[in-house]
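Handout, section B. The chain below has 357 residues.
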Amino acid sequence: MSRITHRLFAITALLLAMLTVTPSAMADMRGIDVSGWQSPTVTCTADYDFAVVKATQGTGFTNGYMTSQAQCVRQRGKSLGFYHYAGGGNATAEADHFVNTIRPYLGSAVLVLDWESYQNSAWGDSNWIRVFVNRVHARTGVWPLVYTSAAYLWQIPSDVRAHCGLWVAQYANNNATGYQTRPWNYGRYGEAMRQYTSNGRINGYAGPLDLNYFRGDAAQWNKYANPSGHTVAPAPTPTPKPNPAPQPSRPNAGNGVSVVVRPGDTISGIAARTGLWPVTAWRVPSGNINRIWPGQTVTYQGKGTPSANTGTGARIHVVKRGETLSGIFGASGWQRVAQLNNLKNPNLIHPGQQLRY
């Protein structure tokens, strides 16, 4: 065989090899992140390689759909993650709330701190991020990823970036899109994950979704979830000073009703238990209805009447101008009311509208 023929064979073999090699981007995983705004079954039907589920916010909110959304991810053999939305309160307390909530999944799910400005009273405080991630690591042995917009990466301290992977949000636009092969500025920030739209449209789900890429495969995902490869047993939360034993609810003079907060209570849960709405009529020691602790006394200052007939949908609230569903029924109560009233768009309620609760 001539030298020219050999050379032609070599060139042909090289071209075939180049055509058959899978681009490195193809190994990257496509995924979604979801919260209580989506249905409890979104992760059962949508097309994805991984799903990151909202678990908690602040110290008093837990996504009511978290368990069902996470269960579908596991049942389908996909990669799972959980995120905590920073409320800006006590960073250690928020980290403990997060870890305690996702405890059954430790070692098998990636953990994330969602750092955004909305409803975050510590926005701009880089040390808050540091305290949170260090607390999570101290209790679990896992460094959480940190999610934020590309414009605010400067808020993440260098020591946090040295330990924690970045999940960067940056959109070229927010036009409806499916999974993209190579999103705009992909990998520019050395990020582990990239969110490139909140208007994603994919098979298996009718509504808009956040779409993301994880820059790696399932094995690399698992390294973030469980760096040691061993079963993770979270350190117990330090025992707080004992609180007075909870006392029964007691009526006050006038319209007030006082309730001693129980472990696991939220204001919307107390409102549902007592039948006293809206949640904004409750007064709490911190001044923030999303920040309550067992043993505290919270007081209702509205015009409602206590009812033993809670949770049946027999009561009616007439919407007033300027009210929102979450404003009336709280961050952990509006979903139940939306379902009870068959609200297709929970953001769209009208003055005079009657809501069963």
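Note. The mean pLDDT is 82. Compare this with the example in section A.
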